[in-house]
């Protein structure tokens, strides 16, 4: 009886193997044979991703970019990028009979006549603001934790390029409606271009198609905004995410985490489920913002006219510091050989990319100073890199001061202050505040390092006061956990680069290049003995925790 059953089971197995595969299986086999999808998925779908709230900053930027693309495609169906003048006769009665460009008229039509048009417009604009903010804060997280070190220098360049392109894309999109506010911003940009020596006039005529405002600027901005720049940015986003997969994700220090292992959740299904839910959360918040928070109400400004300017004309926040540079710069000019060089505009126009470039090149400067060629997958705690953290805060403080300068009229009217006083404050603060921010931040980091050292050696303060038999009062400390002990002591404190002996054993003086002297000076300034608190050694820890002196 058992033999008959085994024979029958074997026959069923043979019949099942002979049955033709299903359509889905055929399609999967076809795709895998040509694209290697199974091998690729097997290698990456179970990839581990660390879990930390700060890692969501990059996802906010990514999801905002997706919302931007979707809403932008929808808006292109109704927007007409034309500088042809028409007479408005639409739903917004206060502007009826007013001469305007077709671009501005179509923007009004989207806002008042297209079902859901105003909501989509505002979601698109809010998504742009959040996108740049998400990238900016994400890059600051990467900077302060040292996540830009080898092998992620190229990914840092991709992120920095994305930030620059996003700023330019925001400027071009902000200018498309051709309202009085955006037109003032375009005139501001045109004035900056004219300040470029020798070629400024030619650049302006080429961009605007003649004398400002010309008739070609909107039609030229449109393909740049909806096709060229988004296409480049999409390629950079794909390359950025590909390198994140290839290099594996960075992680904060902790037990079991090192440069060869990752502690986290698998990409599929855990991380994908969380990422999908977070996307809809970001999309929902942007939708709520677009529905209840008005942004860029173009109908309130009216169409652009070269002889008018909007009171309180402000660009989006990410361009405010560039305007602050020009607003607070003295009106210096040089007249020579019949030509005028407007230094009051050209110098700020040149400083704008240089300030951002300082952020972009820092990883390469630090790598050159340290000479560290190892791979780093464990993040730094910002307090353990005091000079780097202080430099980042100084950069942010300069950005904030210039942002105040870019809105000096708004600050003056809301706080009832003199605009001249605000301008002079920004002029002085632009030099003083970053220096103060550097020293204060550096001292705070050293204080936190000193506190970590005391916590390792003496334990955590309990707040309990105990009196000893000899009358001395002491505070009772409790030992910290091994996990916390590891986290507080795992960071490296390598000696800085040194030139070495200038005179060899034979008394021959060797030539030292200026670059080597500069590197040694920067190494001492950034990683020298005075820039950090020595972390406890194993001998110090054993000595203090094994005797009666440990309370």
TrEMBL record:
- What does the record give as EC number? 7.1.1.8
Q: Where is the composition biased (Low complexity)?
A: 1-13
Domain of life from the UniProt record? Bacteria
Q: Where are the transmembrane segments?
A: 60-79, 125-144, 156-176, 188-209, 221-246, 267-295, 341-365, 424-445
Task: Name the enzyme group at the top EC level.
Answer: translocase
Reactions listed under catalytic activity:
a quinol + 2 Fe(III)-[cytochrome c](out) = a quinone + 2 Fe(II)-[cytochrome c](out) + 2 H(+)(out)
**Coiled coil ranges:** none
Kindly state which keywords UniProt assigns to this record, in alphabetical order: Membrane, Transmembrane, Transmembrane helix
Q: Which cofactor does it need?
A: heme
Question: The Cytochrome b/b6 N-terminal region profile domain covers which part of the protein?
Answer: 27-253
Specify the protein name.
Answer: Cytochrome bc1 complex cytochrome b subunit
């Amino acid at each position: 009886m058992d033999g008959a059953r085994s024979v029958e089971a074997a026959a069923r197995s043979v019949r099942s193997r002979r049955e033709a595969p299903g359509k889905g299986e055929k399609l999967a086999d076809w795709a895998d044979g040509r694209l290697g999808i199974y091998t690729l998925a097997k290698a990456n779908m179970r990839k581990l991703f660390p879990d930390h709230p700060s890692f969501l900053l990059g996802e906010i930027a990514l999801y905002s970019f997706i919302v931007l693309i979707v809403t932008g495609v929808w808006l292109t169906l109704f927007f007409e990028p034309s500088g042809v003048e028409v007479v408005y006769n639409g739903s917004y009665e206060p502007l009826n009979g007013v001469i305007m460009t077709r671009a501005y008229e179509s923007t009004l039509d989207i806002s008042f006549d297209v079902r859901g048009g105003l909501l989509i417009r505002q979601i698109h604009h809010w998504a742009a603001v959040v996108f740049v903010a998400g990238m900016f804060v994400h890059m600051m997280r990467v900077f302060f934790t040292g996540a830009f070190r080898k092998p992620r220098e190229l990914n840092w360049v991709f992120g920095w390029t994305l930030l620059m392109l996003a700023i330019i894309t925001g400027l071009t999109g902000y200018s498309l409606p051709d309202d009085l506010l955006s037109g003032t911003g375009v005139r501001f940009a045109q004035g900056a271009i004219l300040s470029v020596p020798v070629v400024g006039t030619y650049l302006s005529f080429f961009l605007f198609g003649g004398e400002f405002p010309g008739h070609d600027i909107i039609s030229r901005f449109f393909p740049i905004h909806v096709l060229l720049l988004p296409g480049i940015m999409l390629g950079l986003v794909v390359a950025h995410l590909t390198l994140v997969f290839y290099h594996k994700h960075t992680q904060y220090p902790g037990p079991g985490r090192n440069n060869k292992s990752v502690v986290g959740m698998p990409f599929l299904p855990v991380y994908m489920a969380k990422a999908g839910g977070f996307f809809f959360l970001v999309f929902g918040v942007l939708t709520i913002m677009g529905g209840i928070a008005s942004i860029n109400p173009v109908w309130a400004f009216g169409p652009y006219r070269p002889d008018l300017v909007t009171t309180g004309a402000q660009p989006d926040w990410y361009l405010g510091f560039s305007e602050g540079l020009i607003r607070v710069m003295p009106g210096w000019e040089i007249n020579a050989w019949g030509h005028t060089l407007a230094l009051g505009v050209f110098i700020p126009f040149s400083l704008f990319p240089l300030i951002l470039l300082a952020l972009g090149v820092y990883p390469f400067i630090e790598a050159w100073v340290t000479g560290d060629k190892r791979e780093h997958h464990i993040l730094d705690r910002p307090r353990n890199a005091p000079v780097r953290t202080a430099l980042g805060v100084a950069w942010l403080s300069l950005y904030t001061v210039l942002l105040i300068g870019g809105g000096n009229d708004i600050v003056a009217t809301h706080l009832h202050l003199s605009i001249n006083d605000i301008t002079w404050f920004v002029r002085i603060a632009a030099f003083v505040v970053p220096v103060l921010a550097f020293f204060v931040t550096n001292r705070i980091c050293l204080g936190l390092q000193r506190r970590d050292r005391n916590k390792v050696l003496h334990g955590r303060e309990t707040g309990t006061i105990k009196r000893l038999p000899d009358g001395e009062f002491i505070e009772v400390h409790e030992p910290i956990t091994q996990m916390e002990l590891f986290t507080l002591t795992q960071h490296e404190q390598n000696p800085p680069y040194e030139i070495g002996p200038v005179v060899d054993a034979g008394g021959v003086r060797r030539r030292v290049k200026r670059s080597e002297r500069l590197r040694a000076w920067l190494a001492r300034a950034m990683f020298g003995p005075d820039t950090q608190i020595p972390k406890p050694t194993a001998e110090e820890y054993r000595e203090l925790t094994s005797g009666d002196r440990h309370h």
